[in-house]
Design goal:
Shape: extended
Number of helices: 21
Structural class: mainly alpha
Number of strands: 4
Distance between the termini: 77 Å
Strand content: under 5%
Strand order of the largest sheet: 1-2
Radius of gyration: 33 Å
Order of helices and strands: HHEEHHHEEHHHHHHHHHHHHHHHH
């Protein structure tokens, strides 16, 4: 029903602002719920049928491009971007345009690449003395900025903000935080102290341990491509399905561990506990060790270990493979819808927590320590807003120079589409461009008669007047007449 309502609405402005983006509350047990709009609710419920509708995707596309922006007076409302058709360059040189999800995503990608470069420089330049160089210092500053950004968004959005990548990034930041703390502990000891060396090595071990997570983190920014977006959804679903496997595995592990420990303590000696844990872990990873169980409470230890391997390798691992196959088939069958849902979720992450002043991490540290703490609590709101605009304009000048140029070009396209009576996002096809160039040269445009297109269209046009059987009878009559002429020609020559 929701999809039918969206598809049936012809007034685009009413559909976008009143149907899809206007927040409503409902009564549950006599109490009002938190206001939410259709776009947010469809993303939260993973309603693929609603997300895949053309009106919904048009709304998400407008939000992504910044053609629909949050109202300055009421951030819960969305209004049309007034300067969408303005071709003035300096009109688009506005720090408020940094709220556009497309631009925020671009800046985040740039900062993530810089973040990875800092990590590569830090891990490849070990300081045996334990001192912090400028590369490591910037790495930890970036990390602190990302942590503050995650906490702020979680505070504003709530539990709906939590997702696979948020937990993944939080784990990475936790490892780097432990590395930084151990480095500070090392610096607290004098040079030459054995404890300074030990904590310094431990700090670098945590730093090196996080390298796979650093590089895998780049997949977060490849979800804009349809193939990678669908595969990331498959990966997320597989991780969720793995919870069933690990729950079964935990029950089996506890039971067999208790059995092995019980066999080991018959002689009041628990010396084989480490060996048991290692052997069970190797069995899970597909490399069981049977030799060590020959003298382990024979014959019970070896028989029990065979049973354990059979349950793990033959039953549980095949269950895990079946769960993965099921998840892969479910996602790939709806790859396009899953990609659109992922893209919609990514867009809503930028607009769901309205922020009047967009300071992308690690620039959020400048906002926190240079603007919020010293000025926000006493400065009048208009003056504080102007101060933020000046700071953002200075920090993001390279980006604003590019975005203003791109929006100027987009404004020309939108103006041209409106003059033709087309939608704002309509693209001009090649044959339309050819027609415009022909008319600009003083000719009548594309001549389909001279090019032979009209004749080819007439030949391929279906006959909707005559019956199909009648058409075939006529063709058969023509073929019989041709055959008759051929026979008469052969007879005449004979």
């Amino acid at each position: 029903m929701a999809k039918l309502i969206i598809e049936a609405e012809e007034d685009v402005g009413y559909l976008l602002q009143e149907v899809l983006l206007k927040r409503y509350s409902i009564l549950v047990d006599g109490e009002e719920t938190m206001p939410a709009n259709v776009v947010e609710r469809a993303v939260d419920l993973h309603a693929l049928r609603v997300i895949g509708s053309s009106g919904y995707q048009k709304c998400v596309n407008y939000l992504w491009r910044g053609w629909l922006v949050q109202d300055d007076d009421d951030p819960s409302r969305f209004v049309d971007y007034k300067e969408k058709t303005s071709t003035s360059y300096w009109v688009h040189f506005d720090p408020d345009r940094l709220r556009v999800p497309m631009y925020q995503n671009t800046v985040q990608i740039a900062f993530s690449v810089i973040y990875l470069a800092l990590y590569t420089g830090a891990i490849n330049s070990i300081n045996p003395s334990g001192d912090l160089d400028i590369v490591e210092g910037l790495l930890y500053v970036f990390t602190f900025g990302f942590i503050c950004d995650e906490v702020a968004k979680l505070w504003k959005v709530g539990r709906w903000y939590l997702g696979f990548w948020n937990i993944y990034n939080s784990t990475l930041y936790a490892l780097l935080a432990v590395s930084f703390v151990t480095r500070m502990i090392a610096l607290g000891h004098p040079i030459g102290d054995e404890r300074r060396f030990r904590f310094n090595v431990l700090s670098y071990n945590f730093l090196a341990f996080s390298a796979p997570m650093f590089w895998t983190r780049l997949l977060l920014f490849l979800d804009g491509f349809r193939f990678f977006g669908a595969m990331l959804v498959v990966l997320k679903v597989m991780m969720r399905e793995s919870l069933i496997f690990f729950l079964l595995l935990l029950v089996v592990l506890v039971g067999f561990l208790q059995a092995f420990v019980g066999l080991d303590q018959v002689d009041n000696n628990l010396g084989a506990t480490k060996f048991i844990l290692k052997a069970m872990a190797n069995a899970i990873m597909g490399s069981p060790e049977f030799d060590g169980f020959d003298g382990f409470a024979p014959p019970f230890g070896l028989i029990l270990y065979y049973i354990f391997n059979f349950i793990i390798v033959v039953i549980l691992l095949n269950i895990l493979i079946a769960l993965y196959n099921s998840a892969y088939e479910d996602i790939t069958d709806n790859a396009i819808d899953e990609y659109m849902a992922l893209f919609s979720q990514k867009t809503m992450q930028f607009v769901r927590a309205p922020d009047e002043n967009v300071f992308i991490a690690p620039f959020n540290l400048i906002e926190l320590f240079c603007l919020v703490l010293p000025f926000e609590w006493w400065m009048p709101a208009p003056a504080y807003a102007r101060l933020n605009d000046y700071v953002m304009g200075f920090l993001y000048t390279p980006l604003l120079l590019v975005t203003a140029y791109l929006e100027t070009r987009t404004a020309r396209v939108v103006s041209w589409n409106r003059r033709r009576g087309e939608a704002d996002e309509d693209t001009v096809e090649e044959w339309e461009q050819l027609g415009e160039s022909e008319r600009a040269a003083g000719r009548e445009g594309v001549d389909f008669e001279a090019d032979g297109w009209a004749k080819r269209v007439l030949e391929s046009r279906p006959n909707v007047v005559a019956n199909a059987a009648l058409v075939e009878v006529r063709e058969l009559r023509e073929e019989v007449a041709e055959l008759k002429r051929m026979i008469e020609g052969i007879r005449g020559r004979g």
